[in-house]
Amino acid sequence: MGHHSCCNQQKVKRGLWSPEEDEKLIRFITTHGYGCWSEVPEKAGLQRCGKSCRLRWINYLRPDIRRGRFTPEEEKLIISLHGAVGNRWAHIASHLPGRTDNEIKNYWNSWIKKKIRKPSRTSTKTLSSQDQTSHLEFEQNRQPNFLSQDLAVKSQLQETVFPLPGSSFIFDIDSTFENINESNNARMDHIFHETAGLDSESSWQICPNLDQVQAGNQVLQPIAMFTNTSSSGLLTPLMDNVMLPIEVQSCGINMGGGGQMALDILQRNEMNDWGLIDTQQCPSYVFWEQAGQLGVEEIVPCSSNMETMLSTYPSCL
DNA sequence: AAGACTGACAACCGCTTCTTC
DNA sequence: AGAAGAAGCGGTTGTCAGTCT
């Protein structure tokens, strides 16, 4: 194709750009514009291919470029957007004025490397004897891809995006709030009471604007931020402290803010019946049932709630 | 002191998508 | 409609300065 052949031409320079080359390109673009990139090098007096000129301008020289370290807000946004749209760097960059897809991609890749190297807080936590029993039980059911690198990365992301303070609660459900079916509602009700520390008589409901839960006479604030890209492919507006319904088909209840992770895991395992994550203290397992077989996959090892959940929902086994 | 390692980021490559004729 | 070139995109590699051993 055009670029490939143009870059193979003899006397075309490659590698880092010199200040002189930068100056030539800037001078040309600012006076003439760039209309057709393949014509730029010749007109600007550069021994580069048009593609290289374009990249240099877009990623480095254009005046509206923003350089320097990412702010915490930008970092958070990148993490959130990546959780929603994956490696669509150009899409992510469009939400960060002055930042390039290349810059964000580089940032992401080095950040991920760092995170993988650094042992996670939860994965190094000592398990209680109760935890160890539960952990052992499910070790035996591990899937081949258990604790894959991909999963480790996602767990790290989850730690960052969903810091999980002990007294708060977060959850998402398998349908829009208007369509909670009875069995899901009952399970959610039970889990909610336990998680929020309510007595069994206390009633609760999701407030109409979906950002709070009314429990008895107190209003509780969810801490989670969810994204949903499942149906339209469009990016759901990201809002801190707002709980959005996530469409996890037949997924049952998902607590702990791992909606997208659950979806990934369940889809990867072609789960059609139902699945459940129990994650009060930290993310732990996704369960699902298919053809009479229990499937289980770990998100982050250990959960002090495992026994409780198993006794409450014996159908997990 | 010197070589190995690491992180940051610039640049390239190959493929896909868009545009033009 | 479809061929060809241009532009866009994401994965990967290269470079270099700083740090570690």
- Neighbour order of strands in the largest sheet: 2-3-4
Helix and strand run? HHHHHHHHHEHEEEEHEEEH
Tally of strands: 8
Spell out the CATH superfamily of the domain at 10-63: Homeodomain-like
SS content category: mainly alpha
State the distance separating the first and last CA atoms.
57 Å
Low-confidence stretches: 1-9, 116-185, 221-266, 271-317
Q: How many whole angstroms does the radius of gyration measure?
A: 25 Å
Mean pLDDT: 52
User: What would CATH call the class of the domain at 10-63?
Assistant: Mainly Alpha
Helical residues, percent: 40-55%
Largest sheet: 3 strands, antiparallel
Quaternary status of these chains?
Answer: single chain
Total helices: the number is 12
CATH overall fold name of the domain at 10-63: Arc Repressor Mutant, subunit A
Please tell me about this protein's structure.
Among the domains are: 10-63, Orthogonal Bundle (Arc Repressor Mutant, subunit A); 67-117, Homeodomain-like (Arc Repressor Mutant, subunit A). The chain has 12 helices and 8 strands. It has helices at 2-8, 19-32, 40-44, 50-61, 72-85, 89-93, 101-117, 129-139, 149-161, 182-196, 259-268, 306-312, and strands at 171-173, 204-206, 213-215, 218-220, 253-255, 274-278, 285-290, 293-298. The strands form 3 sheets. The chain has a 3-stranded antiparallel sheet, with no helix packed on it. The chain has a 3-stranded antiparallel sheet with strand order 6-7-8, covered by helices on one side. The relative contact order is 0.10. The protein binds a DNA duplex (21 and 21 nucleotides) through residues 1-4, 7, 14-17, 36-38, 50-52, 54-56, 58-60, 87-90, 101-103, 105-107, 109-110, 113-114.
